[in-house]
Specification:
By secondary structure, the protein is α/β, with parallel strands linked by helices. About 35% of the residues lie in helices and about 25% in strands.
Length: about 350
């Protein structure tokens, strides 16, 4: 059994499972341009679609509440005075963790959000996270802005974690109104963080990735299933080996007893030929053990949890089967005898032994 569990057929399967379930950064980053998603050649913890930040309002909100559910419930009241539209006409999303003590939140037109989800599905990214592209920039130092140019657009990330984007003519008045903070021009990082996913509420992703704990549980469960399969395979191989050995013994004995009568190798055919050679009639026909054992086993099957067979012997002359057994419930003895009687057999207990005969069948 040890060699089976360590065989080269199982170890690679465990390795593949570990790689598949492990905590890996295996997502690609895509950017929506003109309604079409294009790959950027950078990576994230999962597939990520970056959408124009001009169409999403990202703000920092103080939500000193103990649970995510309570923060979600309080979010509409915390931002309703900071958006121009009615709160029930916008799609809201909340960041995964606070930045500088406050939580990132975003408000998006539901119709625009639906277009982004549809674009993701068209690109084969139905399970991708969706995030305003400005949030892909790294956080700047306090008092500074990080900026990145994409054609005529300028992406901006601010120290509080929020971000926005706009064409250069619009950027200049916003920058001036903010006190002209120093700006550092940066590149989009090769590994993009995910501070906020717009796929929440009615736009939630169709399936969620496993958490680190979930991955560990899944890996342990999968390893257990593989080990169980290996044990079952080992048991099957052992039984098959015993059957092959018994078949070879039967074939050899048949060739010795009746040379030339059987020339094949199939143990089933050998058994049929041997049955034809057995004498009929008599008080104790050879081969009575197996039919008796089969009928007794069927009758005793419902008592599998109450009786344990320690040893078995067969009296050919008396056509009786002796089963040395242990009863978990002594009161089950009467039921066992009745079950044997219903199967057309006679049964009685002699101490710890159950004596079974063919009865009147």
């Amino acid at each position: 059994m040890k060699s089976m569990l360590q065989s080269p057929n199982i170890a690679p399967a465990l390795t593949r499972l570990k790689n598949a379930l492990g905590n890996r950064a295996d997502g690609s980053v895509w950017m929506l341009d003109g309604g079409v998603a294009s790959a950027r050649g950078t990576y994230a913890t999962r597939d990520l679609l970056l959408v124009p930040a001009e169409q999403a309002l990202v703000i920092a909100v103080p939500l000193p509440l103990p649970s995510h559910a309570k923060r979600i419930s309080a979010l509409p009241f915390a931002i309703e005075d900071r958006i121009a539209d009615r709160i029930d006409r916008v799609h809201l999303a909340l960041g995964a963790s606070p930045i500088g003590g406050e939580w990132l939140a975003a408000a998006v037109d539901p119709a625009v959000m639906a277009q982004w989800v549809a674009a993701a599905e068209m690109a084969g990214l139905a399970d991708a996270a969706i995030m305003p592209d400005a949030l892909a920039l790294p956080l700047p130092e306090a008092g500074r802005w990080n900026v990145h140019r994409i054609g005529a657009r300028i992406l901006v990330r601010r120290p509080d974690g929020t971000g926005f984007a706009g064409l250069q003519p619009l950027f200049l008045p916003i920058w001036t109104a903010a006190g002209k903070p120093p700006c550092d021009e940066v590149e989009l990082p090769a590994m993009t963080a995910l501070p906020l996913d717009l796929r929440q509420g009615m736009f939630a992703r169709p399936r969620q990735g496993l958490s680190a704990t979930g991955r560990r549980v899944a890996l342990v469960a999968a390893a257990g299933l593989l080990a169980h399969g290996a044990i079952a395979t080992a048991d099957t191989i052992a039984l098959r080996s015993i059957a092959d050995k018994r078949g070879a013994e039967l074939t050899a004995q048949l060739n010795l007893s009746a040379p030339g009568r059987f020339t094949g190798t199939d143990p089933h055919e050998a058994a049929a030929v041997a049955a034809e050679l057995l004498p009929a009639g008599g008080t104790a026909p050879p081969g009575a053990l197996l039919p008796l054992l089969n009928r007794a086993s069927t009758a005793l099957a419902p008592f599998g949890g109450a009786v344990t067979i320690r040893a078995m012997s067969f009296d050919e002359a008396g056509r009786s089967l002796r089963l040395d057994c242990d009863l978990a419930d002594p009161g089950a003895a009467g039921g066992i005898v009745d079950a044997l009687r219903q199967a057309g057999l006679s049964g009685r207990f002699a101490g710890d032994s159950l004596i079974v005969t063919g009865g009147g069948a």
